[in-house]
Design goal:
- With 83 residues, the chain is mainly alpha-helical.
- 55% of the residues lie in helices and 5% in strands.
- It has 4 helices and 2 strands; from the N terminus they run βαβααα.
- The chain has helices spanning 21-28, 39-51, 53-69, 75-82, and strands spanning 10-11, 35-36.
- A two-stranded parallel ribbon has the order 1-2.
- The longest helix has 17 residues, at 53-69.
Length: 83
């Protein structure tokens, strides 16, 4: 979804890594504002995002580039961070 320019809202979890994959991805592309820490915040973020068409257009226009510039799409940098 991020690669296609579609913003994602995620709910941070506590139990295991799988609950936080969205948190990791959004953090690496610079969109921490889409990470919710509870259900009420998740709903607020989703409503706010869906209500702002100009912001959605800007996100769709720039998100792929932001992801491409992140270390997620740079194998060497990703490996250095992993090490």
């Amino acid at each position: 979804a991020l690669w296609m320019g579609v913003p994602v809202v995620t709910l941070q979890g506590e139990a295991c890594h799988a609950h936080n994959v969205g948190v990791s991805l959004l953090s690496q592309v610079g969109h921490e504002q889409f990470i919710a820490h509870n259900i009420d915040e998740y709903i607020r973020i989703a409503i706010t995002l869906a209500s702002d068409v100009s912001q959605l257009q800007e996100i769709r226009r720039t998100l792929r580039g932001q992801m491409a510039q992140s270390y997620l799409c740079d194998g060497s940098a990703f490996t250095r961070h992993l090490e």
